Amino acid sequence: MADIFATLEDIVGLRRKGNPDASYVARLTAQGRAKIAQKLGEEAVETVIAAIGGNKPAIASEAADLMFHLIVLLADAGLTLDDVRAELARREGVSGLDEKASRGT
Ligand SMILES: N=c1c2ncn([C@@H]3O[C@H](COP(=O)(O)OP(=O)(O)OP(=O)(O)O)[C@@H](O)[C@H]3O)c2ncn1[C@@H]1O[C@H](COP(=O)(O)O)[C@@H](O)[C@H]1O
């Protein structure tokens, strides 16, 4: 089965320049980067609220909204999930605590 994130990224890439009357991705993209970022922030807050509530299906649903909007934002910024994968790969094996200590702040 194809990775759903890769599939979604392809769909978002196609829909970005679509008809705003027929596509949510096209409509949101047409509203600009700040609006996309605002939606991402809203979905992040909704994910936080669901996490505190502790209902697993609700958390998964909000996380899906969050990931979807993150993909829309990345596409608008000219970035792909491969860019995020590369950054995470770069960090692989480096403890978050060690990295924080190395900042010396
Ligand atoms: N995965 C998603 C997806 N997840 C969430 N959403 C939409 O994201 C929006 C989230 O907004 P809210 O929950 O805040 O609800 P809202 O009241 O509509 O929000 P606002 O009015 O405040 O903008 C809703 O309209 C959801 O339907 C999604 N819309 C599209 N996709 C995927 O993107 C593909 C392309 O979609 P279109 O661009 O619409 O063709 C679809 O086939 C799906 O695979």
From TrEMBL:
Catalytic activity: 1-(5-phospho-beta-D-ribosyl)-ATP + H2O = 1-(5-phospho-beta-D-ribosyl)-5'-AMP + diphosphate + H(+)
Enzyme class: hydrolase
Annotated localization: Cytoplasm
InterPro entries xrefs: HisE (IPR008179), PRib-ATP_PPHydrolase-like (IPR021130)
Key words of the record: Amino-acid biosynthesis, ATP-binding, Cytoplasm, Histidine biosynthesis, Hydrolase, Nucleotide-binding
Record keyword Isomerase present: no
Superkingdom classification of source: Bacteria
GO cellular component: cytoplasm
GO terms for MF: ATP binding; phosphoribosyl-ATP diphosphatase activity
Pathway(s) the chain acts in: Amino-acid biosynthesis; L-histidine biosynthesis; L-histidine from 5-phospho-alpha-D-ribose 1-diphosphate: step 2/9
Pfam hit, one: PRA-PH
BP GO annotations: L-histidine biosynthetic process
Enzyme Commission code: 3.6.1.31
Main location group: cytoplasm
CDD domains named in the record: NTP-PPase_HisIE_like
HAMAP family: HisE
Matches recorded under PANTHER family: HISTIDINE BIOSYNTHESIS BIFUNCTIONAL PROTEIN (PTHR42945), HISTIDINE BIOSYNTHESIS BIFUNCTIONAL PROTEIN HISIE (PTHR42945:SF9)
Family: Belongs to the PRA-PH family.
Protein name: Phosphoribosyl-ATP pyrophosphatase
Annotated gene: hisE
